[in-house]
Design brief:
GO molecular function: imidazolonepropionase activity; metal ion binding
InterPro entries: Amidohydro_3 (IPR013108), HutI (IPR005920), Metal_Hydrolase (IPR032466)
Protein name: Imidazolonepropionase
Number of helices: 12
CATH superfamily: Metal-dependent hydrolases
Largest sheet: 7 strands, parallel
Low-confidence stretches: none
CATH class: Alpha Beta
Strand content: 15-25%
Helix content: 40-55%
Keywords: Cytoplasm, Hydrolase, Metal-binding
CATH architecture: Alpha-Beta Barrel
C-alpha cells in the first residue's frame, strides 16, 4: 500500500487526476481478488479518481489453460462484480499470452457482469486482438505496436480508442504506429504510461507525451489531447479530460505555456493541481 500511495502521489504532482490501476500480477484467482481489494483501499486514501481493472495477464504455472480461463469466468469475474471491485476487464491477447478465443470468452463474461472492456492488442505479434476489440466494441485496444492500417481502421469504425504506450515500446525497443497511419485510419488515439515493474517504470505524463511526439510523430497538441480528452474516452468517461461547459473541472496550473512541458520532456511540472474545482496539490 505504501508503494501504491507513493506512486499515486507522484502522478498527482505531475497533474494526473484520474488513473486506471490493473490487477494481473497476482495470477492465482485469490491473488487477483486481493489486488483488486487493495486498489479499493487505495481509492479511499487518494484524491484522484481510481478506475480498477481486472487484467487476465497470463496463465500461471501449474494450471491447464482451459481450467484457468474457466476459473476466471466462473469465480473471479463474478466475485469481482459482486464486490464491485472492478470497473473494467482487460485481457493480454497476444503471442505467448491468451488466444483470441480465450480473450473473447473472458470479455464476453466480463460484459455480462457489467464491466467495460479493454484489450492488450498486437504488442508482440499481430494476433487479431484489434479485430476482436472492434467486434466487441471495447473501450480501448492498448499497445498496438504491430497493428496494421486494417486493424486501426476497424477500431476507428467501431469507436474503439487506440491507446499507445510509448514507455513500454521504448523499453522493449519496439516501433509504434506512425502518426500518418493513425490519421489515415481516423482512429482516436490516447496515451498512457503503462506503469509496470517489467517494461515501463514511467510515471511522468509529460514525458509520455514527449515520447509520443518523437516516436509516433504526433504534434504536441495531438499528444496533449491524447493524454487528456481521448484518455478519458478510453475510460468511458467523456466528461473528464477537457475544459468546457459541463465538463468536470480537473485542471493544472503551469508557470509555462501549456505545451512547454512536452517540449522540455517533462520539465516545468504543475504549480497546482485541481480536481473537481478543488485544489488538491501545490
Amino acid at each position: 500500500m505504501a508503494l501504491a500511495l507513493a506512486r499515486a502521489q507522484s502522478l498527482l504532482a505531475h497533474g494526473v487526476t484520474s488513473l486506471e490501476i490493473k490487477s494481473g500480477y497476482g495470477l492465482e484467482p485469490e491473488a487477483e481478488l486481493r489486488l483488486l481489494r487493495l486498489i479499493r483501499r487505495l481509492k479511499e486514501k487518494v484524491p484522484q479518481r481510481v478506475f480498477p481493472t481486472l487484467l487476465a495477464h497470463a496463465v500461471p504455472q501449474g494450471w491447464a489453460r482451459e481450467a484457468y480461463v474457466q476459473a476466471l469466468v466462473e469465480e473471479v469475474l463474478p466475485q469481482a462484480a459482486r464486490e464491485h471491485l472492478a470497473f473494467m476487464a482487460d485481457v493480454f491477447c497476444d503471442q505467448g499470452a491468451f488466444t483470441v478465443e480465450e480473450a473473447e470468452a473472458l470479455l464476453t463474461s466480463a460484459k455480462e457482469h457489467g464491466l467495460g472492456l479493454r484489450l492488450h492488442a498486437e504488442q508482440i505479434a499481430r494476433s487479431g486482438a484489434s479485430q476482436l476489440a472492434a467486434r466487441l466494441r471495447a473501450l480501448s485496444a492498448d499497445h498496438l505496436e504491430m497493428a496494421t492500417l486494417e486493424d486501426l481502421s476497424s477500431l476507428a469504425q467501431a469507436g474503439v480508442v487506440a491507446v499507445l504506450l510509448p514507455g513500454a515500446a521504448l523499453s522493449l525497443k519496439k516501433p509504434l504506429p506512425r502518426a500518418a497511419l493513425l490519421r489515415q485510419a481516423g482512429v482516436r488515439v490516447a496515451l498512457a504510461s503503462d506503469h509496470n515493474p517489467g517494461t515501463s517504470p514511467l510515471l511522468n505524463p509529460w514525458l509520455t507525451m514527449a515520447l509520443a511526439v518523437h516516436m509516433v510523430g504526433l504534434s504536441a497538441e495531438e499528444a496533449l489531447v491524447a493524454h487528456t480528452a481521448h484518455a478519458a474516452l478510453a475510460l468511458g468517461h467523456p466528461e473528464l479530460g477537457r475544459l468546457e461547459p459541463g465538463a468536470v473541472a480537473d485542471f493544472v496550473a503551469l508557470e509555462a505555456p501549456p505545451l512547454d512541458p512536452i517540449y522540455r520532456f517533462g520539465e516545468h511540472p504543475p504549480l497546482a493541481v485541481y480536481i473537481g474545482g478543488e485544489r488538491v496539490w501545490s
